[in-house]
Amino acid sequence: MELLIILVGLLIISIATSKYFKYYLLINKVSLRPKIYVTLTTTPIRIHKIKEVIDCIFSQTIQPDNIILNLPKNFNRNTKLKFDTLPEYLLNDKRIIINFTDDLGPATKIIPTCKLNFINDNDIIFSIDDDIVYPQDYLEKFLFYYISFPDCCITGCSELLIQKNNKYNPLTECLTVNGYSGVLYLKKFLKDIELSNFDYYSVPLYYYLSDDLVISNYLKSKNIPIITHSSHESLKILHYGLEKDALHKGGDLNNIYSKDNETKYKKTAEYLKQNNKYYINSDFY
Question: What is the C-alpha separation between 229 and 169, in angstroms, rounded?
């Protein structure tokens, strides 16, 4: 009888610790899971164009607790632009939190969210761009990988892989996040990052616009692994996503670096190296 009790106990432990059981709880037991926030930013020019992006998030197979929309109080990249009026659907939807914040460049989509006091350290923050429509099960796939790798930052794709993906290893460690593909963080990963990294008046413009590299470098400095599931899914880029102020181009309204991410990333890497703060082990940047 004692042996039977032990075996039943081991079976219960095995089920409770399996990733599939955790996945079941994540999907079906909202009260037992960490909160999930989707976060993004936009510009005064684009604020009236983002409804399709918001709708695609509220159509996901797993719903976030909230969407957090970070809007710069003063738009440093063009001081003539203001958020004078906001669309009614943003103001009237209680699931959407509008957070007026400093202009941290493209990093405004994620960094201010990681500073919000009501978000717990282990809550999930999924950052997206304001001009990409994501597949309906996109967030769910990230959450499935999070179950197995809860201490990793997960990016949809990355240009710098540490090892090649193969059928035995569907997830690949990489060196950088790629913001437009969606990135899953825990708040604790970035809550202590210094805002001076994104101060428009203190850092070079190329650095200010290189949020993916700056954030990836910070994660590496804290020994937080970055993994990618190398998603090859077709992400729908909306028409305004091809314009010069697109976030995946750096949101550079002056069009200085918007056509050439590689140049600004290499200059940013060199800037970090000169200050002995470069932690990414790659000759590419």
Answer: 9
Within a 13 Å sphere around the CA of 224, how many CA atoms are in the beta-carbon half? 22
Cα–Cα distance measured from residue 217 to residue 219, given in angstroms and rounded to the nearest whole number: 5
Helix, strand, or coil (residue 236): strand
Predicted TM-score (pTM) of this structure: 0.87
pLDDT tens digits for range 200-228? 999 999 999 999 999 999 999 999 999 98
Q: The domain 31-274: what is its CATH number? A: 3.90.550.10
Domain ranges for the chain: 31-274
Instruction: Name every residue whose Cβ is closer than 8 Å to that of residue 148 and which is 6 or more positions away in sequence.
Output: 19, 171
Which of 41-45, 85-89, 203-207, 226-230 has the least mean pLDDT? 226-230
With beta carbons less than 8 A apart as the criterion, state whether 215 and 26 touch: no
